[in-house]
Amino acid sequence: MFYRKKNEELLPKEQTEVWECESEDCIGWMRKDFSYENHQNCPLCGHKMSDGERLLEKLPPNSHRN
Asked: What Pfam families does UniProt report for this protein, alphabetically (predicted)?
């Protein structure tokens, strides 16, 4: 029997503003679009988070928070 991976289209990537954990031991980050505050604490370790950018897949228009 032959199994083949589906041909899925790759989503375009864009520079996205994110919050990044300042702790060297933690890899936590989140999109700013999904945050409610102007400053954040890391949900994984509780440390302060700072502004950053990442090259991420573009989300469909209906998934952004208004």
From this structure: YdjO
